[in-house]
Design a protein that fits this description.
- This protein is an all-alpha fold.
- The chain has a domain of 124 residues.
- It is built from 6 helices and no strands.
- The longest helix is centred in the first third of the chain and has 32 residues.
């Protein structure tokens, strides 16, 4: 009887080691991709294109596409929302300025860009894998799902844009603002003559 327990432990140990090694390698490459947002999003666009082509050629799995669309909409709302919503919480440390005289505070997202990208990429990969199982191909009239998703998207974005206008924040930035080249004092005052 004691031999059976040892055999199971001998089988589990290599699997655990392989899982640990795979997890470390995956995290290593994930960490290396962090400073390259353009390349990451191009990869996600490629994964999304593969999923769209698969769904188009199979002519099915509309429920999966609808669920994927709802999930992406939910992620987008988190990406566009501030970490501390002035309507829900009143705190002084990380809230948005509500008056012109308030101190400037940078916009901090509820869902950071990297996590947003990672969640969308995982969602497209999972949806792609689900298209290989016929149990998920539920027969539905897809134009109704598409119309419902468009209405949901428009209403949700309208609410989000109204929130942005009310609290005067823009969730996008292009880095530090740059001004025209500053001339040195000596050359502009005429002190440096030949």
């Amino acid at each position: 009887m004691e031999g059976n327990g040892g055999d199971a432990a001998n089988v589990v140990a290599p699997l655990a080691k392989w899982r640990n090694d795979f997890s470390r390698a995956f995290q290593y490459y994930l960490d290396r991709s962090t400073p390259h947002p353009t390349e990451r999003w191009l990869g996600t666009l490629a994964v999304a294109a593969i999923y769209v082509l698969r769904a188009y050629f199979v002519q099915g799995f509309y429920i999966i596409s609808y669920g994927l669309g709802i999930y992406i909409l939910n992620l987008l709302i988190g990406f566009l929302s501030p970490k501390v919503d002035p309507e829900l919480e009143i705190t002084d440390d990380a809230s948005l300025p509500t008056k012109g005289s308030d101190e400037f505070k940078p916009f901090i997202r509820r869902l950071p860009e990297f996590k947003f990208w990672y969640a969308i990429t995982k969602a497209f990969c999972v949806a792609f894998l689900m298209t290989f199982f016929s149990v998920f191909d539920v027969p539905v009239f897809w134009p109704i799902l598409l119309c419902y998703w468009i209405v949901l998207f428009v209403l949700t974005m309208k609410r989000q844009i109204m929130h942005m206008i009310k609290y005067k924040y823009v969730p996008f930035s292009r880095g530090k603002q740059r001004y025209g080249r500053k001339k040195s004092g000596a050359s502009s005052s005429g002190l440096m003559r030949d």
